[in-house]
From TrEMBL:
Annotated transmembrane regions: 7-25, 31-52, 59-79, 91-109, 121-142, 154-175, 182-202, 208-224
Chief site of localization: membrane
Name this protein carries in UniProt: Putative membrane protein
Protein origin, superkingdom: Bacteria
Organism the protein comes from: Leptotrichia hofstadii F0254
Cited InterPro entries: AA-Vitamin_Transporters, EamA_dom, EmrE-like
Keyword annotations from UniProtKB, A to Z: Cell membrane, Membrane, Transmembrane, Transmembrane helix
Gene3D superfamilies: 1.10.3730.20
Domain EamA: 6-79, 93-224
PANTHER family in the cross-refs: INNER MEMBRANE TRANSPORTER (PTHR32322), S-ADENOSYLMETHIONINE_S-ADENOSYLHOMOCYSTEINE TRANSPORTER (PTHR32322:SF18)
Subcellular location: Cell membrane
Annotated signal peptide: none
GO cellular component terms given for this protein: plasma membrane
């Protein structure tokens, strides 16, 4: 990249859109639990809507906001399974969770111009390299704490390749075809698919509250997809 502005943009994307998203999300899990972190993560569409409303000088329809609330409520039901005691957490966890959602909104809206010029592989690839450099400056890879063995390394590799690299690449590439708002909302399918896979793989059963959550997510996203 010979354009200095684009280089600065990639650095910003790698810092906020890659490193901070991952750090704040996993730190929120560490300080609270997966349910709480997941719920806060899926408030990102609100921040995307706020940004795009300001940018386009257009107030979203009340029905759209209601549908967005329905989506998040569905995620809450799925993530907590009706046990709302999991949502009692520290202020630090709350702040980091909100920052995580804001950073998700950032990487959903910011890189569109870069994508048009360089493509998703280049943008995501350089973003991850920059994010990993920052991460290693703060916490070098050779100072890993905990029990490092073959099993843990395989788990890390799976998270890096499937849960991060491929997931980011597909998500960022989708921004070439759909709006940031719709892309953000569609991520609500993540806990739905996780729940379905847990049933298929581990033989778990859905509770009534989870089924209600599925219905809320599917119905609201189906309607929103037609509008956005």
């Amino acid at each position: 990249m010979k354009n200095k502005r684009d280089c600065a943009g990639i650095i910003l994307f790698g810092t906020a859109g890659m490193y901070l998203v991952q750090y704040t999300y996993f730190k929120t899990i560490e300080l609270s639990n997966v349910s709480f972190a997941t719920i806060l993560q899926f408030t990102a569409p609100f921040f995307i809507f706020i940004y795009e409303s300001i940018k386009n000088k257009k107030v979203p329809a009340v029905s759209t906001v209601i549908l967005l609330f329905m989506t998040i409520l569905g995620v809450v039901f799925i993530a907590t399974k009706g046990n709302f005691s999991n949502l009692s957490v520290s202020l630090e966890a709350l702040l980091l969770g909100v920052i995580s959602a804001i950073m998700i909104a950032f990487y959903s809206t910011y890189p569109k111009k870069l994508l048009k010029k360089y493509g998703s592989i280049t943008v995501v690839g350089w973003g991850m390299i920059i994010g990993s450099i920052i991460s290693n400056v703060i916490h070098p890879i050779w100072k890993i704490e905990g029990n490092v063995n073959a099993k843990s390394m395989i788990q890390v590799i799976i998270v890096v390749i499937l849960g991060t690299s491929i997931a980011y690449l597909i998500y960022i590439a989708s921004l070439n075809y759909i709006s940031s708002s719709l892309a953000g909302i569609l991520t609500a399918f993540e806990p739905v698919l996780a729940a379905i896979l847990s049933v298929a793989i581990f033989g778990l059963k859905f509770s009534f509250i989870e089924i209600v959550g599925f219905v809320l997510v599917f119905v609201s996203i189906f309607i929103l997809e037609k509008r956005l």
